[in-house]
Amino acid sequence: MASITTFRVGHCTHPSCMVLKGSGLASRCFPSRAYLIETRAGLYLWDTGYAEHFRAATAKGVYRLYAWVTPISFEAHESLQGQLRAHGVSPKDIHTLLLSHFHADHIAGLRDFPAARLMCSQAGWDAVRSLSGFAAVRQAFVPELLPNDIADRLGFVEGVPETALPAALHPFTTGRDVSGTGEIYIVALPGHAVGHLGAFVLQDSGWTLLASDAAWVPESFQQLRGPSELSFIVQHQRAPYYDTLQRLHQLHQSGNAQIRITHEDTPDYVAVAGRP
Fold it and tell me: What residues contact residue 77 under an 8 Å CB cut-off, 6+ apart?
């Protein structure tokens, strides 16, 4: 079975009410996370979190708006490369880097993994590949974060056949086994961004759904409480978002899978490892 190791890679702050209706104006911390998934087929990374590249890319032009709207904190010791090395993993050991979507806080470290194969949703890539300037910022996308050779390294999850998921994972019924070993199944979680993805990972302890930004705080899928309507200025579509949130709520209620969201800031999840 696979194992998951979670890395906290910087964080941003934002008013709580923007991510959860009725939660007030107090500033809330939103860690950005990357996940190392160890499978029989090799080592996978799910997203990268922040990196020093983000500061450089948002220090000029219209991209400064991104850093102004979501102020970030990123220290040298939070570098994903450094944390992986401390875990005994070299960046060149990563077999595939799976991208949930192209928002900057999920792809800022891509340039630090020049040997990894990259996989994403083709719809997600097509939606951002030609964006620049304000149009890019509106989609929380910073083109400079992309490796120069991304077109040569990028593969699409749509090329992996859909297969049935276990009935216990209802209302999720199909996924794409990108690991080829039954350990990582990619599923669509539409609404937050075009081509937004999640991953069911099978561990010894059972299934975990890495749900990315399908919710920003656990109260959303636990209580079916959505974000501020203003958030849909940068999120893709309201109706699919709430449909995905409903499915997460059903899965949560079933107790058949653990749900992890990228920006969750709870005491038991600041530095959780999937194995001792």
Answer: none
Residue 165's pLDDT is 98
DSSP H or E stretch at residue 170:
none
Q: What average pLDDT does this structure show over 127-141?
A: 96
> Is the pLDDT assigned to residue 161 strictly greater than 70?
yes
SS3 state at 177 = strand
**Helix residue ranges per DSSP H, 96-204:** 104-107, 122-128, 133-138, 150-153
| Rounded to 5°, angle at Cα 90 from 88 and 93 | 110
In this structure, how many other beta carbons lie within 10 angstroms of the beta carbon of residue 150? 16
pLDDT in tens, 48-90: 999 999 999 999 999 999 999 889 999 999 999 999 999 999 9
Considering the chain, what percentage of its residues have pLDDT values greater than 90? Answer: 91
Cα(251)–Cα(172) distance, rounded to whole angstroms?
8
Q: With contact defined as beta carbons under 8 Å apart, do 33 and 6 qualify? A: yes
Tally Cβ neighbours within 10 Å of residue 164. Answer: 10
What secondary structure does DSSP assign to 3-34, as a single string?
EEEEEEEEEEEEEHHHHSTTS-S-EEEEEEEE
Assess whether pLDDT exceeds 70 at residue 267: no
